[in-house]
Amino acid sequence: MIEEENDDLTNEQDEPQETITRVTGMYKDWFLDYASYVILERAVPAIEDGFKPVQRRIMHSMKDLDDGRYNKVANIVGHTMQYHPHGDASIADAMVQIGQKDLLIDTQGNWGNILTGDSAAASRYIEARISKFGLDVVYNPKITEWQASYDGRRKEPVNLPVMFPLLLAQGGEGIAVGLSTKILPHNFIELIDASIKHLQGKRFTILPDFPTAGIADFSNYNDGLRGGKVRVRAKISQLDKNTLVITELPFGTTTSSLIDSILKANDKGKIKVKKIEDNTAAEVEILVHLPSGLSPDKTIDALYAFTSCESSISPLGCVIEDNKPLFIGVSEMLRRSTDNTVQLLKQELEIKLGEFEEQWHFASLERIFIENRIYRDIEEEETWEGVISAIDKGLKPHIKHLKRAVTEEDIVRLTEIRIKRISKFDIDKAQQKIDALEEQIAEVKHHLENLIDYSIAYFKRLKKDYGEGRERKTEIRTFDDVDATKVVIRNTKLYVNREEGFIGTSLRRDEYVCDCSDIDDIIVFTKEGKMMVTKVDSKTFVGKDIIHVAVFKKKDKRTIYNMIYRDGKGGPSYIKRFAVTSTTRDREYDLTNGNKSSVVLYFSANPNGEAEVVTILLRQAGSIKKLKWDIDFADILIKGRTSKGNLVTKYSVKRVELKEKGVSTLKPRKIWFDDTVQRLNVDGRGELVGEFRGEDKLLIITQSGMIKTVTPEVTMHFDDDMIVMEKWIPKKPISAIYYNGEKELYYVKRFLIEQEGREESFISDNPKSQLEIVSTDWKPMAEIVFAKERGKDRKDNLAINLEEFIAVKGISALGNQLTRDKVNQVNLLESLPYEAPEEVHADELEVVDEETVEATSPTTNNDSSSKTSSNDSDKDSDSEDKGQTTLF
Q: What pLDDT score was predicted for residue 382?
């Protein structure tokens, strides 16, 4: 439509007038009306009852149709359309969502599966009725506020009188115009307990609980407000060395979507999977078969890092209050819901009190009317007014004890009493009824006077009647962040063209370096003494004459680089050792003194801080007498990468040769175990396990009688039944007492682990066999508590020194029989004192705290400057690179 300046236009032929209306104002009003309607009437639940309008209308319709039997969902949907001005599909979908939450609706038929994502059958095939819980807490017409339906033909509730924090129990999600809401579901029992604590004036905390179970980290939940975050994970365990099993899902995923994400990660090369089996029925069971030789622990972390096995949920608490959106946390929602429940209970009691008092009033009037034969006073009356007046006059002498005045309506009710009832009137029974009503009135008044106690009792009844089987499903844990670069599968190959200075994954004709992944960073060193860290790509120029290239590990303090370089053209040579813990990607760093034509004479990268011995060979020139000597890198302190280094010689170096490979000069690595997240770490969190060198192993024993030694890795996962985890000392025997299910006797054994890295069982394979105690002490003591046998006195407890009881044998040995008497219990006592032998390691070398290598440098009377200088004039560098590197 074209707008003109004049509102009315008349054509030249005097045709009927055509009016053009500007629509700018309409757009403003209509859009605001539409946005308000979507927010208030469709997407966001009300705080009073926790229902969106469609859900409230479904529950109201079900109450209309309720006769205790199941109704076809199609019938309920059709009935709901009398109240809900939208299509049947939206109503049916909303009803299926309510039914799948298994709280308000008893379902019959195929209602879909929240685990697999299967949809429900058509509404004509499935049936529903209100659950007992729904009837108990959702409905009470006497305290319900009503309004006209959209077409004015019927009445519908403004809000249902829900006396339970239903919104938090079911959760809610919706997208409106300009805002959204995402309230996570919470545990039924925990909500009731929190409501009781609120009524008692105590503090409480509530955390979500998901129907798909799984594991969740709520440390950043932020009470369900904007900005919070919940991390949810699938429950993954190791079935055997080549199979993982997923038994619980993260909220918001299904078995189908989870398997799809695993297959996509496999296609991209992030993880390696041989086959996936979905055996899900009533319980989740997804089997992930791995190729042989692949670490299950590393794969579990990779599943969390690259698939939907871990996801993040951002809650957003938004509700409708007084026809306006309100952003509040879940704790405040619970407080308001609980307070609302108290007020509804009060209204319910007040209505009951009014009803009981009304019953008492009429029962008292009826007794007066019949007992005093007032009905005879109306025999002579000929008019209705006269009848009313006669009864009123007859009642007056007897109504002083009544609690309210007698009305004409009361008198009319008396005239409606049948003769048969008057003739069979029993004064005693009438009095009993009045007494019972007085007791009920007194009870209701007591509840009103002690409303909080009554409300607490109400919540406790709900927990008792409906709490069975509603225990928490989601395990609360604190997660360690998974470093994707440590768990990603090396899915491509890295190549280098050293002379031209190119690295990349597409240089297949050039030198192969290592396997890498597409998310790795690569560290490169050139002969000019330059260093750069760059991301893996198909082809990248980093600088000519590459001398070392490798995958870069961020914050790696154990990889030490040993380097000898010449400073400038014809300048002196320096030696240095350094670690690279962090850099800026694609920035070139100069590791020399910065002079032009500097060149690296020797370079090595040592993953465990090894320090080799090298031979320095000088060129023949002038009066130099000593042209060859050795330098041990162990004598050089580890400093920052920007340090100048120690002087080797001011003369021209012909070459540097490796004479002897070195051992680690680093301190043993301290490893801790954080029981909260069930993971190892090197950050000092949890309990110290020990100090580990490269060859040291971790000893793990489980309650099921399995034992193994493993190399400690921060990516390791541990079984729930692990009972021993400590640093393994190979010559230290393990002592155990176990019940042999086959022989039905207790046995003692002491053994050493014969094969490193192999998981073995050290108790018999019989299903009845059971490990009683296990000890890794040198001289363990055990106590045997005997059972009382019929006709015999109970034997005194017996203490046994296990070292004296049995010699150390093989792990597969049966062991010695403990006793033939019946044993009630076996306890581990405090071990006997024993001084364990000290461990001796080849790499226990003392780091020399000298800044010179004077002992190994050439010395002449004529040239004192040929000694290694003790002056190491470091350049300004980052604080983390100054001084000796602190390792673990």
A: 80
Average pLDDT over all residues of the chain: 85
Whether 246 and 151 share a structural domain: no
CA atoms of 98 and 729, how far apart (whole Å) = 58
What's the chain's length in residues? 888
| 71 lies in the same domain as 135 | yes
Looking at the structure, tell me whether residues 341 and 379 fall in a common domain: yes
Same domain, 705 and 734: yes
CA distance 163 to 168: 13
Give the per-residue pLDDT at 17.
67
603's CB contacts (< 8 A; 6+ apart) are 525, 547, 548, 561, 562, 563, 564
Report the pLDDT value the prediction gives residue 294, as an integer from 0 to 100: 81
Cβ atoms of 183 and 173 closer than 8 Å: yes
Residues 305 and 393 in one domain: no
Among candidate residues 185, 597, 506, 165, the one with its CA nearest the CA of residue 339: 165
Whole-angstrom distance, CA of residue 564 vs CA of residue 640: 15
Element containing residue 96 per DSSP (H, E) = helix 88-100
Percent share of the chain, pLDDT over 90: 52
Give the tokens for residue 343.
Answer: 């007020």
Residue 474 in any domain: the answer is no
Residue 433 lies in a domain: yes
Would you say residue 523 lies in a domain? yes
745-751 and 808-809 beta bridge pairing: parallel
Which DSSP string do the residues of 813-880 spell out, in sequence order? ---EEEESS-EEEEEEEPPPP--PPPP--TT--PPP--S--GGGS---SS-GGGSPPS---PPP--GG
Q: Are residues 750 and 813 in the same domain?
A: yes
Q: Which of 34, 125, 512, 834 is catalytic?
A: 125
Task: Tell me if residue 550 falls in helix, strand or coil.
Answer: strand
For residue 471, tell me if it sits in a domain: no
Q: Considering only CA atoms, which of 836, 870, 835, 867 is closest in space to residue 850? A: 870
Give me the CATH number covering residue 285. 3.30.1360.40
Catalytic, 125? Answer yes
- Gap between the Cα atoms of 99 and 58, Å rounded: 11
Q: Which residue has the tokens 């089996």?
A: 277
110 falls in which pLDDT band (50, 70, 90)?
A: very high
Q: What is the mean pLDDT of residues 306-317?
A: 93
How do 511-516 and 243-248 pair as beta strands?
A: unpaired
Q: How far apart are CA 165 and CA 182, in angstroms?
A: 16
656 with 677, same domain: the answer is no
| Average pLDDT over every residue of 472-500 | 86
pLDDT > 70 fraction of the chain, expressed in percent and rounded: 91
- Checking 366-369 for CB contacts under 8 A at 24+ apart, the result is 366/414, 366/417, 366/430, 367/427, 367/430, 367/431, 367/434, 368/395, 368/398, 368/399, 369/394, 369/395, 369/414, 369/417
| Strand 540-541 versus strand 722-727 pairing type | unpaired
441 and 394 share a domain? yes
Provide the residue range defining the domain that includes 524. 488-666+850-881
Q: Are strands 492-497 and 475-476 parallel, antiparallel or unpaired?
A: unpaired
Beta strand pairing call for 215-217 and 180-183 = unpaired
Bridge-based pairing state of the strands 613-618 and 573-578: unpaired
Q: What are the tens digits of pLDDT across the range 557-569?
A: 889 999 999 999 8
56 phi and psi angles, rounded to 5 deg = -65, -40
| Residue 570 near residue 599, CB atoms below 8 Å | no
Taking the C-alpha atoms of residue 736 and residue 776, their distance in angstroms, rounded to an integer, is 9
Average pLDDT over residues 255-282: 91
The H-assigned helical ranges of 283-423 are 296-306, 330-371, 384-395, 408-415, 419-423
State the total domains in the chain.
5
In 481-608, alpha helices (H): 484-487
pLDDT at 15: 55
- For 133, which DSSP code? H
**Would you say 500 and 544 are in contact if contact means Cβ atoms under 8 Å apart?**
yes
